[in-house]
Amino acid sequence: MSTLTQDSTPQSPPAPAAPGRDRYFDLLRALALFRVVLYHLTGWAWLPLLFPSMGVMFALAGNLMARSLKRPAPAVIRGRLRRLLPPVWLLGVVGVTGMVAQGWGPDADGHPLWWWFHLTFWILPISDPPYAEGLPGVHGLIGADWAVELAGPLWYVRAYLWYVVLSPVLLRALRAVPLVTVFAPIALAGVFELGWLDLPGERFDSGLTDFSTFGACWILGMAHQEGLLKRLPRYIVPSVAPAIALLGLWYALNHDFGNGNDLDSMPFAQSLWSLATVALLLHISPSWQEWPGRLRRWDGLITLLNSRAVTIYLWHNTCILIAATQWDRLWSVVFLEQNVPWLLESVWPVLVVTWLLIACCVVAFGWAEDLAARRRPRLWPNGAGRGRSPRRS
Description:
Layout: H1 19-42, H2 47-50, H3 53-68, H4 73-101, H5 112-119, H6 146-151, H7 154-176, H8 178-194, H9 202-225, H10 236-253, H11 267-284, H12 293-296, H13 299-307, H14 309-328, H15 334-339, H16 341-345, H17 348-365, H18 367-372
Helix pairs in contact: 1-3, 1-13, 1-14, 3-7, 3-9, 3-11, 4-7, 4-14, 7-8, 7-9, 8-9, 8-11, 9-11, 10-11, 14-17
């Protein structure tokens, strides 16, 4: 499962009305985005343990959704979809056009109407949109099977969409039976893991698995916004969360945890570890009236990452593939191959190139997020040269 915001991601600079909480959450989102890019480049199994980005991003999204549901639910859901979908449509226009140009088209099995029907999931991704597997690369630019990498992040869009639609029901359940509601997705993940419940089909399989894996994080974010966590004695979360995390770690270690078989391929362990980490991060929630001194210099970068989080998440896999393709071409330079092979094997230069390409995507495609939020399009929204505007939820 590929591992990114979001009206779940911030869509505007931090709001003065709640600077401490917003700035802390914006920092968490920025760290989550950086970790996602690094993980998808390196595949290091310990990175999701160090910082479970997807659980954090779903929790922050749930927090924002609960805050917004003070308004009528239909209007909130429409607003969330309006903010999320235009950047996805732009990705689809570029991706589908490229796939068709390389020969992708209606299935050759005599059911072309299904192909056209499935294309509608690029418009409203309630299920995984179709994409072409096995496409050749574009020589000298991007590697083979690029469509798979381009479509990889869309699982998050599908999961986020369903969380948004279900949030009014989840919020009512949370207010009625908080503990049961938070742990119900964990229990569902355990039922799936033990094989006590058969999943109904491939498309439902992925949706239900995502809900059971990260649903507790989304609901916990809602609980934090509702003030339910503050009502607990201060020792509860620091006492219970490590035990839950250790249970998830124990399960992972006893199921061949390692590169190629990490938390992303272990939904039950992922659900436990993510819930525990998110609970601790929400428990901390420092009240920063201003950025701490060491973080003040990063204000512009954090603002930029938050303002373009959807764009970064949607395009980062493609940027990684292009960067790796270009870096691999340097092996043809005999001097470099003979004298600095360690540099050609290093992931760090590829990471730098990846972020340069991501910056290009921010400039080229980020305006879709502004249009979705009904703002004037900006090329580089790092908050410089203008005052802070209130966040619109």
